[in-house]
Write a structure and sequence with these properties.
Structural class: alpha/beta
CATH class: Alpha Beta
Number of domains: 1
Number of helices: 7
Domain NYN: 9-142
Mean pLDDT: 90
Pfam family, one: NYN
Shape: globular
InterPro entries: LabA, NYN
Protein name: NYN domain-containing protein
CATH architecture: 3-Layer(aba) Sandwich
Organism: bacterium (Candidatus Gribaldobacteria) CG10_big_fil_rev_8_21_14_0_10_41_12
Amino acid sequence: MTIKENNFVYIDGANLYKGNQSLGWKLDYARFRIWLSEKYNIKRAYIFLGMVARYKDLYTKLQEAGFTLVFKETVCDDTGKVKGNCDAALVLKAVVDFYEKKFDEAVVVSSDGDYAELVDFLKSKGALMVVISPSNKCSYLLRKQNIPLLYLDTQREKMEFRSGKEKAPDADETA
């Protein structure tokens, strides 16, 4: 498989976080960004998030790691739980970028079947590289599409956050 030079990734931030959390590990976002760049030649990494003021330090760290943050206004449900549904914004951005010829191929990071139509669209246009599922419970709507699918948990050794126990440079095959 030849990897093209100008590839973008579209990440459902909540799905990424919750997927790793459900598997009992914390993602090192800086290592993840390096891995995306090295493995898939990702030039632009969009991460779609609900804007919550108390997470401003996290947002700064994500930007420092090389992510482009796209915020969605949040609302609270009846129980007071914050909701920031980014699905439509992610789909729209990917489709606009495709038609404006901003990328060669796209990577989608989510386990959510709501992205099945986007994945099908990108596949039909020859512009889908891979779907990366943060959860081992990836939606059947994505799995049934006969697409390259990578479960992020298979890369856990390379990207798990380790506070105070840093690996030696290159020990995880990233720069």
